[in-house]
Amino acid sequence: MNKLTKLVVATAVSLAFAGQAHANRDTVQVAGSSTVLPFSSIAAEEFGNNFAQFRTPVVGSGGSGGGLRQFCQGVGINTIDIANSSRAIRPAEVDTCKANGVNQIIEVKIGYDGIVFASRIDAGDFKLKPEHVFLAQAAQVPQNGQMVANPYTNWNQIDKSLPNQSILLAIPGSNHGTREVYEENVILRGCKTFAEVKALPSGEQNNFCLAMRTDGRVVEIAGDYTETLARLQAQKDAVGVFGLSFYESNRDRIKVATVSGVVPTIDNIIAGKYPVSRPLFFYVKGEHIGVIPGLQQFAEYFVSEAASGFGSPLEAAGLIPLDDKERAEILANIRAKKTL
N or C: which terminal CB in the chain sees fewer CB atoms within 10 Å? Predict the structure, then answer.
């Protein structure tokens, strides 16, 4: 197929899609990260209130990986317009998108969040280090120069400063962007402090560090943070992994641990002191801009000072805003349809 033929076919597909979309869908469709979900829902509601000419976007969950899978299924009215993600899109996901005709992927950073370890108000107080969490979760742990099956059943067996409380970790499932940040910034960092791990071939270290015990003391939560919260409510000893914003809206029910001596607060994350923080994103399907009414306008509004800057509804909900320079750059990228 020569270039002219490809152009004609692509144009025909775009025109057909445009006709279908205007006839059948006039609402922006969003899915993905449970961390970004509350921010996206608030932005959608505010957008609907401020832009009467457009319908309020419909926002769903499904985890970062699930949202990006939907996003990359193709172009057309039966595919979503925006994928929310608490991690950057992976090269393999970009390849899948492009293989399915999604070539215009616009990355939009909306702000920052921290990952926290939280327990019930009436449970013990935790002062965690990454190595503590690794030792609680691991299938095998280093002891006296050898790797042995994890013997720890209580936190104070790992470190006497920790509560005398049974180990029960509720961590995000592999479909969540939070899981990747949790593994990189906590588990791998903690694991690789041990001399026995450093002595392993570099190609084996990650596999060893990420192998989890299977005795029921680590529970993977496939749903959103409300499911993790339910686990804490049902089991007093449970320690769950949450986004800071979720904790902020549930302070009456849960309390957070310090990590490496630092309390997870917005100020500490902005200052770079808290070790488990990450940027939050959404991805816009460029092929749908100008076809799905309000898509570009919603993307720009989401990143605007009014919606997500300091003093905004999203900051009140727990989002850590972008600085002015980064916000201006991201808005310019949306307007220019700058793609990955």
Answer: N
Q: What is the pTM of this model?
A: 0.80
C-alpha distances out from residue 31 to 97, 132, 146, 244, Å: 16, 34, 45, 20
User: What is the DSSP code (8-state) at residue 275?
Assistant: S
Tokens of 206: 């990650």
Query: Which 3 state secondary structure label does DSSP give 267?
Result: helix
Residue 18: which residues within 8 A CB-CB, separation 6 or more? Answer: 290, 291
What whole-number distance in Å separates Cα of residue 86 and Cα of residue 282? 8
pLDDT digits (tens, 9 = 90+) for 80-123: 999 999 999 999 999 999 999 999 999 999 999 899 999 999 99
- 150, 139 contact by CB (below 8 A): yes
Structure tokens at 213: 């015990």
Q: How far from chain centre, in Å, is Cα 206? A: 21
Can you tell me the mean pLDDT for 24-50? Answer: 95
d(CA 302, CA 110): 8
CA distance 55 to 48: 6
Residues with Cβ within 8 Å of 118's Cβ and at least 6 positions away in sequence, in order, are: 232, 239, 240, 241, 242, 247, 254, 255, 256, 257
> On the CB side of 243, how many CA atoms lie within 13 Å of its CA?
31
Distances in Å between the alpha carbon of 56 and those of 42, 49, 81, 285, 325? 11, 8, 14, 18, 29
Per DSSP, the residues of 287-314 read GGTTTSTTHHHHHHHHHSHHHHSTTSHH
Cα distances (angstroms) measured from residue 251 to each of 52, 223, 245, 254: 35, 20, 10, 5
Q: Supply the Cα-derived Rg of the chain in whole angstroms.
A: 22
Residue 32 pLDDT grade (very low, low, confident, very high; cuts 50, 70, 90):
very high
Bridge partners of 108, per DSSP, are: 282
Give me 257's structure tokens: 């641990």
